[in-house]
Structures are given as C-alpha cells and as structure tokens.
C-alpha cells in the first residue's frame, strides 16, 4: 500500500481516565509516528495531542479508529494526496 504523510489531532476530555490507554495505542503505532506534541490545557480541562504520521490509509484509519473508540477522545486526520 502507498504511504502518506499526515497530521492527526487528538482531544482528550478526561485525561486521567484514558491517558494510559491513549499512550498504549500510540505505542502500538509508534513505527508510523514521525513526531508528537502534547499540550495539557488545564484551564479547559482537556489535553491536546498533535501527531505527524507516515503510513498507509489503512494504518492511519486503524489508529484513528482505535483512539476514537476510547471514551472522551475525539480524533481527526488529514493526509496528503500522494
């Protein structure tokens, strides 16, 4: 499959409840993650993570699907056309 470069945005509404599970999923897909930036936005009670990824649409879809199935986790992805 063709690999694409993209960005995944993750918003975690209850960090304490799901942080370990989010990190476990990200660790499972570590080979596809080029970079990661996480910011705890304490004033709003959320955490925001931005990932740069390099993988097939199937891999990115599986990653975003697993993250999005976690309670209180919102995920969006944008990929290059090539």
From TrEMBL:
It holds the Pfam family TM1266-like. InterPro entries: Acetolactate_synth/TF_NikR_C (IPR027271), ACT-like_dom_sf (IPR045865), FeFe-hyd_TM1266 (IPR023860). It comes from the Bacteria. This is Putative iron-only hydrogenase system regulator.
